[in-house]
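User: What would this chain look like folded?
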Amino acid sequence: MASSSPCAAPSPSLRCPLALSLPFASPPPVLRLDGPKLLLGRLAVSTPGVPAVTSALESLILDSDEDDEDGDEVESGLFQGEAWAATDERDAVRSPELEVPELEELPEQWRRSRIAWLCKELPAYKHSTFTRILNAQRKWLTQDDVTYVAVHCLRIRNNDAAFRVYSWMVRQHWFRFNFALATRVADCLGREGKVEKCREMFDAIVKQGHVPAESTFHILIVAYLSVPKGRCLEEACTIYNQMIQMGGYKPRLSLHNSLFCALVSKTGGTAKYNLRQAEFVYHNLVTTNLDVQKDVYAGLIWLHSYQDVIDRERIIALRKEMKRAGFDEGIDVLVSVMRAFSKEGNVEETEATWDEILQSGSDLPAQAYVCRMEVYAQTGESMKSLDIFKEMKEKNIPPNVASYHKIIQIMAKAREIDIVEQLMNEFIESHMKHLMPAFLDLLYMYMDLDMHEKLELTFSKCIARCHPNRILYTIYLESLVKVGNIMKAEEVFGEMQSNGMIGTNTKSCNIMLRGYLSVEDYLKAEKVYDVMSKKKYDVQADSLEKLQSGLLLGKKVIKPKVVSMKLDQEQREILIGLLLGGTRIESYAQRGVHIVHFQFQEDSNAHSVLRVHIHERFFEWLPSASRSFDDESKIPYQFSTIPHQHFSFFADQFFLKSQPVLPKLVHRWLSPRVLAYWFMFGGSKLPSGDIVLKLSGGNTEGVERIVNSLHTQSLTSKVKRKGRFFWICFQGSNAESFWTIIAPHVLNSFANSITQESSIIGSDGAQDTDTDSDSDMLRYDNESDE
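Assistant: Here's the prediction, encoded as structure tokens.
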């Protein structure tokens, strides 16, 4: 499986066969890694066979050997000052002791000289030059020799070099697995924040039949938690569970607290899915007799309050345990309790908790008022909810977005037209963001009351202030069909189809089909039916019956169509662009059948827009479980296609032994649409106007073909390699020319979203946690390293 994520599975370079751990060939006195460094002088040994550079692009890449390698590894987070855990977390658990022979104990002088030369020279080289030097010494190197070189790299804190030495060593026929060495390399990489490489070493240890050391579990979990914006939280939880269940270790208190903090760090709507893992962390704290902090109790109650089905007994039990531990319930706990009771419509308990907040003498939170509005709306007392909203303003508590959303929703359901309109005007005049939910509540009310003129006016106001979406357009489309304005409805439906940020779905197509049938335009109705059949949309039974009856009048019988699954030209180009950016294809159980995995970044507005568009564009290729989302906001950020042989061509072209590669003919496939989707998925438009594309997989020859192909289109680009990725940059007038080429295929308003992203979007659907800053990324002149 190919993956470019910092949380990905390891590359095959460490997937070595099972080998027994044997002692060193010679058992002389040993040198401990924790001892003082052995300072080696520069010996007069010529550099062994380094081939000449064969192309201009390779020269450009090799010229930056002095630049720091692996800029694709995160250098910020927990170990660099993030407040995930205690400041001494990097040394909380010590690694197992690693012992290697003394260099002076080797019998041959020439061997000692060459090993000393390798220790001096290797850390200065990058990538292929590094490997070439080792390959040139293959005839005389032994495992003990290479182990000493790796240990020396660890001593001088060049952990990347140690990792490359180890990766080269496991591919040799004489390799014997050394648990202590693998553990020390993994731990050093994890402490430095090299998450991906640390995970590779962790998995390599497991594949050898060993349980990783406690230090490796601990450091890898903390490294995952240090990845910005919690993008590797799921992986951290997986390793945490394995640490307890597979390793039988008892994590330290700081590790429990760090993971729990990450689980409750997101918004309630997202964090509610972390309840099961949070309960597991709490269980481990209790069963190992560790101190349970007040924030743990508060966090668990908060997570329970956001569940769709409230576990009332569990909340009561947690409150009792919290009091038994000697902790007072703070305002945050009381608000969480109010939220839970209000969802159940329990007025008595909600008001009792409200009284506790009043008696505390603390500032009254706006969220508590929202909970009170919710509970009275549940009992049908909508005007009481309005009184609570007014009371909040009278007490000089400024209403927030959530309070406006809630009161507008309540009043709209109560059909209080004048009140809703007044509240909506207040909300707009407040210049707060997130107006869309309130506009939708207003539109639904007008639709139910058949107030279509006001609905159209509100629709115009909404698109002037908010980014359009499919739900908004579907409501307007249904209104137009209801009033019989089919010509306008056809125009809106066409806009939905042409605008990739909106798109169509089952509901909108059924609405348009009913519209055509209502005016007996069976020819256009049949075209809509054909589109629905191709996309595997469900056709309403009454509409299908009317369509068949209408076509019978023209002596034409409509039969259920057997649609042949085939990627159209647009889908093929979209897929190529996404694959260049890092989308993965995996082989299914049957030979020759493959699955495409789409993965987008949750904290990226640009990827959120693209996610909805790709879901709609490949709808017919998705399994039934992924096609059941009427609300686009519920579309997951990760989904996969059904297994199909049509994806096999792309798998053969873009992957070799599950690793990403560049097709030999990729330079012929760079159409404007391919470039546009490559940009939208794996690129960024920087505030300076420069455009950067991230290229997943490939080698210098493949990148050179892409660069030359772009040059034929008058697009001059610069290339930089960082770790496993190439970055192609267009600057100045070249960036403008590139944008002119792709603009017709870029989703509307997408440019604004992607320019506002704070960091470069990653090729794996997550922002690249392992990249340099934007300023570093743009030092392209003679800075590429192979």
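The chain has a mean pLDDT of 80. If you want, I can go into more detail on any region.
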